[in-house]
Amino acid sequence: RKYRDLDYESGFSRFIRRIIGHTKVLIGLINGPAFGVACTTLGLFDYLVCSELAYFLIPFPTIGGCPEGTSSIVFERVMGTSNASGMLLFGEPM
């Protein structure tokens, strides 16, 4: 097994590591709200297809939590500093 040395991980950490280490193309289809982990993990996908109903929102600024799912790193790379800051610091929907 490729992840034998990572078997100590569980839950969310294991889920994120599996997405990062996935060897096939990951395509995300969004047809409505992507909230929380559904939003933060999308930056790890290779290609996204969004309907006109899609929007993206993270709850961290309003509940005083820290960003999850590598969003603090990936968001800036994918959408630029200004847009990433708007979402991560101020909870602005996109």
UniProtKB/TrEMBL annotation:
InterPro entries: ClpP/crotonase-like_dom_sf (IPR029045), ECH/Chromodomain_protein (IPR051053), Enoyl-CoA_hydra/iso (IPR001753). GO terms for cellular component: peroxisome. GO terms for molecular function: delta(3)-delta(2)-enoyl-CoA isomerase activity. It is found in: Peroxisome. Keywords: Isomerase, Peroxisome. Pfam families: ECH_1. The keyword Cell division does not apply. This is Uncharacterized protein.
